[in-house]
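Q: Entry one of two.
A:
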Amino acid sequence: MASPTTHFILVHIFTILVATSHAWKPKFSSILVFGDSTVDPGNNNFIETLFKGNHFPYGRDFPGHVPTGRFSNGKLVTDFIASLLDIKDTVPPYLDPNLSDHELLTGVSFASGGSGLDDLTTVASGVIPVSKQIEHFREYVEKIKCIVGKEEAQKILGRALVIISAGTNDFSFNFYDIPTRKYEFDIDGYQDFLQNRLQIFIKELYDLGCRKIAVAGLPPIGCIPLQITAKFKNPKDRKCIEQENLDSELYNKKLERLLLHVQATLPGCRVVYTDIYNPLANLVNQPEKFGFEVTKRGCCGSGIVEAGPLCNELTPTCEESSKFVFWDSVHPTEAAYKYIAKYMEAEVLPKFVNSNSSEIYL
């Protein structure tokens, strides 16, 4: 039988271990999301555009089996992150006219499927560019000021987790598939153009009170099934497009350096680079290691062209979506998003905790 002293030491050690295991977890007041279809929970439902995910089979595995406007079979990365942080189970679209005060105060998404940092990206689709999303955010700020007052609203904004995920559509629509911007920029110049737009956007968020910002890099664009389809006509030749992936890697390296510079110019702000490339590349290159089987096509239809309106109630889907990295020809499955969220939990969220002490940024 352990002595009282030994018992006290064991209890003390256990207490320290428990505290340490949770010490990384920062406290956020809410979650605010900007970007494209990877983080749009349904804003496109409320605008005039054909690019919507508010019909079956989208939402097949979402709670209640309802299509919400999310371009996936279930939840998005941001939904999982909000749940992991005990903020809310899912992140609603800002444009939903029926949002409660509680929903507004705990966070919303301003993202729009098909969006980009370049305004040219959204001209044909009519979706909401990132530059317009900041206007909606200004409206949002005024709304929460009316709910809780100016001082409390500023506290909420300062403690909110902001997630930005945009850029993929800019390259897909404007540079690779429809090379409009190639007449103005080489790949290096277009990357710089987009990151300049992003830097301006982050400054605008900062000026409105945001202080904790996670910015996603590009995924391996060359592994998106639709990009593979555009490159390889023969199904037997399907493989990731190496040059597009190299372009994504170069963009991400530049972005990491840029965000360090941006953080240094914004006092009291934490701006964190969020690696999306490697976790998604892991699933594509070593699917069996993570419980996946199919990587070169989506679950919906043939999986090589169907997305948005082409993935619909008349389109057959695979039986086990959890075995597929992609749900349609563009967007990952809920299973892939869940893996990316767990990766962010381990590698990104801890960076919002003060590295010099156990103090949490509030």
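Q: Entry two of two.
A:
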Amino acid sequence: MEGTSTKGGVLSLLSLLEVQARSRRHVPPQRSRVKELRAEAEALRVRREQLKTEIQTHQSLQRLRTSLDRQSTHDEEEEEEEEEEEEMDEDSENSQLLKLMARHTRVKDLLLAHHLIGGYDIVKTRHGKGVCVSVATAYEGVCLETYNLEMDLKPTLRICRHNVPPFVPLSSLAEQGDMQTDIRAFLETLSQHLNAFAGRKQQLKLVKEQHKTIEVMESNALCSILVLMFTVPKTKTAILCTLNYSDHTACLPTRVQFECDVKEILESSEWRKNCSLLMETPLHKALMTMKKMGNIV
């Protein structure tokens, strides 16, 4: 009897311990889940506050951007701009920082637009009804003339004013480049023509400055035809050189022709090399090489 009672007590104790163990296994997961939910709720509250702050900052930046855009286009609403800026000063302790951020984003947008348009300077005119595009020219790292085109945006893109030289076929370039659908292609073609013209004009200027012994007999406004007079040192023979630039998008001639009373000179290998040199090298540099070789005075 005593053994049976002891055995029953042990079994009862084991059963009780098993029940307690099961209860302990179930309670911690429930508490852990509650903690997870509370942590998620707290994270959502923090994210909500962050979004509120971002929205307020974005709205403030938009107001400042609008104010800056109005200033850049000289809009006649200065009083309204001042009221907006004063309101910003009162509502936000970080108004100066916001103004800097607004200017920064505006500059980034302008740089992006500058890149998309191909690197050309573009400015809104007539309160956004038109734009002015500037095409700069340069040769051998030297900035030269800048040409401007003012365009109407509506009802269609149309050039209304410009200072492009009349011998540049602006209208045909606009038609060929389909300015309505691809303004960048049109501007690239126009830039090629203007830079080539500026380069040819600059070469002629350098020839006159650096080569006083060479006489410029003839040149046209487009600098597409140039006639020079050379003198051969040994025989003092005069040679007439005509350079034809039929490719108006290039700075190098497409054809070089010599005229001289002494045909033997032109048939020599030296002058055949001079012909190739003039077609492959900028004019002022080619003449310098010809002088160093003793072919011209």
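A: Comment on entry two: The chain is about 55% helix and 20% strand. Confidence is low (pLDDT under 50) at residues 75-84.
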